[in-house]
Design brief:
The complex is a heterodimer. Chain A is an all-alpha fold. In chain A, about 65% of the residues lie in helices and about 0% in strands. Chain A contains 8 helices and 2 strands, in the order αααααααββα. Helix content of chain B is about 75%, strand content about 0%. Chain B contains 9 helices and no strands. In chain B, helix 4 packs across helix 7 and helix 8 packs across helix 9.
Chain lengths: ~210, ~190
Amino acid sequence: MIKEKPTITWETFTEGLWRENPVFVMLLGMCPVLAVTNSAINALAMGLATTFVLLASGTLISLLRHNIPKQVRIATYIVIIATFVTIVDYTIQAISLDLYNALGAFIQLIVVNCMILGRAEAYASRNRPLKAVVNGLGMGIGFTFALLCLGVVREILGAGTLFGLDLFGPRFEPWVVMLLPPGGFLVLGAWLLLFEWIRQRKERAELETAAETR
Amino acid sequence: MGSETLSFIFLNAVLANNFVLALFLGLCPFLGVSGKLNTALPMGLATMFVMLVSSVCAYLINLVLVTFEIEFLRLIAYIAVIASAVQLVEMTLKKFTPGLFRSLGIFLPLITTNCAILGLALFQTFKEYDFLQSLVYALGAGTGFMLAILLMAGLREKLELSTMPTITQGAAVSLILGGLLSLSFMGFAGLGG
């Protein structure tokens, strides 16, 4: 057994938010990211559903980590995740049928979101439940944040609204393609370009200050 | 929806509702394995094959589930069946065609978490396709996936020869390319329903 680091640091929580953001940095779980972000409210709902599954499955897997045989661990994880996804699926159907229809099959497809399985394999199965929960919460919030980034931009450009509120008045000509599949690819591409640009600027600035101090 | 002709189902799945470019399924391999044509082709073939196998399995499983009225177990049953189908394909290939098995390598087990496979199984259940329709739908979805990943790989190979600004070197440019491809596939929208 790998020796467990007992400390829970602020880092445990924040690494999912930015440095290892599942969408923008690790490019995991891309399918729901692009498919359901045509409005901010869908993006938020999807983010929360995924966060719930991530937390619940992380806790259970972490509690069972000494009992799951190594050979069948992936199958076990998938069955655990599928159970929680079924719960979420039926809950959303009970709360709001509109939302259920808007998200479609993508709620059930949370099962194959590689981010959740990746976390289960790389983190929950090796750490204490509390630590796994804190990390999962960070990852979930990071995922929701990324979904919102896309959802907000696509809804504003494609429909002129935000969370259903009209922003520009009746004379706004909506850029409908942003709500359609190509918009998802293009907006995520644009966000990645922006982050890469910021990163390179920061790197260059650091190099320059290092050169000046020398 | 049970009365669609087979050719309509096929064309719909390949072009108008292409799994990758219109429904956003199976993006991980689409972005991850599309760097070179000679890895994209085996990936496309393997996915297509697993799609056919799991489509048949999902159809039979659904019959059983409906008979016993335990549809809430559908998701768990499907994912378990897909995982074992992939395992089966892996073992069969290893035994009979070791060459092909080696060239596929790590891609094969990763097909389990390809959402296009589970998506296909779920969609054919929602649309209430009969056995033959499901089979044609799976064939169409597989062909569509192959078409998308091959186009993408070809474009990215061309892109390697051109000079680009430094910030676009990475995933961003693949996504923009995907957006352009998806834009052009929207032209087929009138064909489907």
